[in-house]
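Hi W.,

Here's what went into the run:
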Amino acid sequence: MREEIIVAGSGGQGIMLAGNIIARSALSSGKYTTFYPSYGAEMRGGTANCSVIVSDKEIGSPVISSPSVLLVMNEQSLIKYLPRVKKNGLVIVNSSLVKSYPDASIQVPATGIAIELGDVRAANMVMLGRLIFGTNIFSKEIVTEVIKDVFKGKQEFVAELNIKAFLKGNNYDKKS
Amino acid sequence: MGSNKILMKGNIALCEGAIAAGCDAYFGYPITPQNEVPAYMSGKMVQLDRVFVQAESEISAINMVFGAAVCGKRAMTSSSSPGISLKQEGISYLCACELPCLIVNVQRGGPGLGNIAGSQADYFQATKGGGHGDYRMIVLAPYSVREMYEFANISFQLSEKYRNPVMILTDGIIGQMMEPVSIEDNKREPITRSSTDGWCLGGCLGREPRSIKSLFMTEGVLEKHNYHLKNKYDLIKKNEVRYEEYLTEDAAIVVIAYGISARIAKSAVRKLREDGIKAGFIRPITLWPFPYDKISEVSSCVKKILVAEMNLGQMVEDVRLAVNGKCPVEFIGHPGGGLFTDTEIKEKLASMF
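Here's what came out:
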């Protein structure tokens, strides 16, 4: 198997963290992985994206020209990356903020769900949950363990909230 | 893949490698895409009671390296292309004075301020002497996060063995990317008095004062010093050439690349082999000393050679020197921070059959 995943949105939406959790889950699953961030003049409110490759084989370039999975958290990112998605690629959009999504995409009102759960910052975990269900690259148990580890050292409720958001996304609209 | 691996950024792996290798002092100045290095070192080195200085410029940083090295300390600096240009005067002095140290160039697009994307356009500068005078630096080119970690250690070893600066020539992509790496036991003893006692300036109590300098005005002395350096460089050329070879034995066409381009070229070769096409791969690990002999040997058994670099064609000149007309050498490149896809290299190779 090989998935080339682009996670994109605006700075502050937890784009890098979501990508990081995918790569760390790949590591826990014994797969090859690379994580490559956008870097430089990034800031809260600017654009942010990262490329994560998960594969059974050694990985050459960590840079993705056409992703097999696109996860977008805001409108600008959809406009930028949608034309690059592979044929029959999986597109998951945060429909709370993205309005011009294609019909073939999976729409998750992630920001809305996160607010309901008590913290808008958990929207990335809702999206991540849906991505794990949609691609089935790892079990949700593996990802849950990684999330726990990522928030180790913070107050317990932080990991709990993020896992709750992740599972909510994982169970959301399971039609595809 | 083992479970003891952790996910790490190339720039951080470099820091961890240098720390494990007993680096006493880091001097640097921020520039993208290597900012993680001074940022990480500023915390870690101080915790370990070692030296970290954010200098007021790249020129200061390289001269601080000179100061630490001349006192027998294991010292390093890092920067990216424009910053490395500023260090060239200092590098020439370090080579002239035969001072061991590590200089890291996380290359970005040039010339000038260029951009912040990964690039390989500083090959000439690193291997042919960006500063003045007849000098050589050992240049190592890592192509994975693991090698960023390991080469820090190898660099300090080589630099102290030959009393010569060593450069790690990497790029923004290797520096910024994360991949699993296992931090094995890579610890080195701190630099010892016995290894530096013969030359370093650690205070002359109980011995004759000595000096380390690069100014030799007496007739014939500088020429003699240059021959002394040449003998050392010849020894390095004899002992320290490193390269990786992959599926070259039966290959009809071989692609030669280093650093990030080598990763991409290698996956192109792997894909061609899956289609039954006999492609091979050579990756120079030391860019100086360059694996001339290996490439010369391979060039007499293959139909053609392709060189892939993220520049307008620099290492290709060394490949042509090695091949010396024995087979055609073609080039594929991207300047200014442009990047290959493996499909692009694969198609180029396929078209050469």
